[in-house]
Specification:
This protein is an alpha/beta fold. The chain has helices spanning 3-7, 10-15, 28-36, 49-65, 82-100, 118-126, 145-151, 174-185, 205-208, 275-310, 340-351, 384-400, and strands spanning 74-79, 109-113, 130-134, 156-162, 194-197, 221-227, 239-244, 254-258, 261-265, 316-318, 329-334, 358-360, 372-377. It binds pyridoxal-5'-phosphate.
Length: 403
């Protein structure tokens, strides 16, 4: 066997990747299911109607989690992940806007936030949609609502909110953005839709912050993406787009027949193994909502452990905001203005098998153009032992340093 294949320590490399949101751990039974279904092509619903049945179950489970009042008014589409779901959502938004503005010659625009995911930039480029980027309020990291208002015009196809930005971990206050849009759309019959990028937060907010209103309970929230391969606890790659039927463009859909019923699918439906849907189905059946809630609560306990541990190091400063809801994890920077430290800490940790991503921090840190931040994501499978080991390794680094 080639060295590249033999020497790749899959388990450790994945689990010790501190910055990734993707699932790197599944219990044994889930792994067995994942392997069992790996030779089955999920899009062949004629040959494997059971896979379609699992997919239907999963989609309805999500719609229910996101408070879709009457499921028949909503649709769901399995995707390879949130990036694909985001692409489809913008396509739907653009067509929905076009249906209301058939003669418009202005270029459609999408309003995103400074901390929105890069997937929106790629999708907007590909779909010829202009992006308007609203800045965050430096103090609170929340949306500058007056800037949002100023940016809305006749070409606006939608507004994007995030549940757990990758650079801040913060969940946007979707209700406030919804209120702004409600105050505007009183004047016309075109309703500006909100898309919620709940790639990671979609599996957290329903369990940890049940009173936080961000989903289909809000009048303008018309579509939501979520990644099963993040806090849905499935290995890459599976995501979903959940949408209100009213913004779905029927012309885009292909008709399929499944168990005698006709079913419509969006065009980007590529071959992929059934492993992911089968494993997601297994988790939903096996854990149920209460099982997910237990796991997520445990992640916040681990988060506390790591935050307490990191407080021991005066060299590090945690900048994860505590006044807003956030996904479990830590954003930190070097506290002593020696900005190279974080990068050399990261280099040191790589030698010990960890991967600590360091990124330019201007998304979090006001004004500073050259500060670096690092992200530790708390995921399922990160054990207390591993946390102790990480804290020990960071300690070794700082105590070996010669100031
Ligand atoms: C991970 C992530 C994405 C991209 O999702 P994939 O499932 O990796 O395609 C988009 N937005 C946010 C907020 C994310 O965390």
């Amino acid at each position: 066997m080639d060295d590249l294949l033999r020497d790749f320590d899959t388990k450790n490399r994945a689990i010790k990747n501190l910055g990734a949101f993707s699932s790197t751990y599944m219990p044994k039974e889930a792994e067995e299911i994942f392997i069992k279904f790996s030779s089955i092509n999920a899009v062949d619903s004629c040959a494997y109607p059971e896979v379609e049945e699992m997919s239907q179950y999963c989609g309805n489970f999500l719609l229910d989690m996101f408070h879709a009042s009457s499921p028949e008014r909503y649709q769901f589409f399995p995707t390879s992940g949130s990036s694909e779901a985001i692409f489809l959502a913008i396509l739907l938004f653009k067509n929905y806007w076009k249906a209301y503005h058939p003669d418009s010659t202005i270029k459609p625009n999408l309003i995103i936030h400074q901390t929105s995911h890069v997937a929106f930039i790629s999708a907007a480029k590909a779909l010829d949609v202009e992006l308007k980027i609203v800045e965050k309020d430096h103090e609170s990291l929340t949306w500058n609502l007056s800037q949002l208002k100023e940016n809305i015009d006749k070409g606006t196809i939608g507004v994007v909110c995030t549940l757990g930005a990758t650079t801040t971990l913060v969940m946007d206050e979707v209700e406030k953005i919804n209120a702004v849009l409600e105050s505007i759309s009183g004047h016309s019959d075109y309703l500006i839709p909100i898309h919620v990028d709940a790639a990671s937060g979609g599996f957290i907010a329903p369990f940890i912050y049940p009173d936080f209103i961000w989903d289909f309970r809000l009048s303008h929230v018309k579509s939501i993406n979520v990644s099963s391969h993040k806090y849905g606890l499935v290995y890459p790659s599976l995501g979903w787009l959940c949408v209100d039927e009213t913004i779905c463009d029927d012309k885009l859909k292909n008709e399929n027949t499944y168990l005698g019923k006709s079913m419509k699918r969006l065009p980007l439906h590529f071959s992929h193994s059934a492993s992911h849907v089968a494993t997601q189905f297994y988790h939903f059946k096996n854990l149920g909502r209460s099982g997910y809630a237990d796991i997520m609560q445990d992640l916040y306990r681990k988060n506390k452990l790591i935050v307490e541990g990191l407080k021991e190091f005066p060299e590090l400063e945690m900048i994860t905001p505590s006044h807003l809801f956030s996904i479990p994890g830590v954003i930190m920077r070097a506290s002593n203005q020696r900005q190279d430290d974080l990068r050399s800490l990261s280099q040191y940790l790589i030698k010990l098998g960890w991967h600590l991503p360091v990124f330019n921090n201007n998304a979090v840190d006001q004004g500073a153009s050259q500060t670096w931040a690092a992200r530790i994501v708390i995921r399922y499978g990160l054990s207390n032992d591993l946390i102790c080991q990480l804290l020990g390794d960071i300690k070794k680094y700082f105590s070996s340093k010669f100031y």
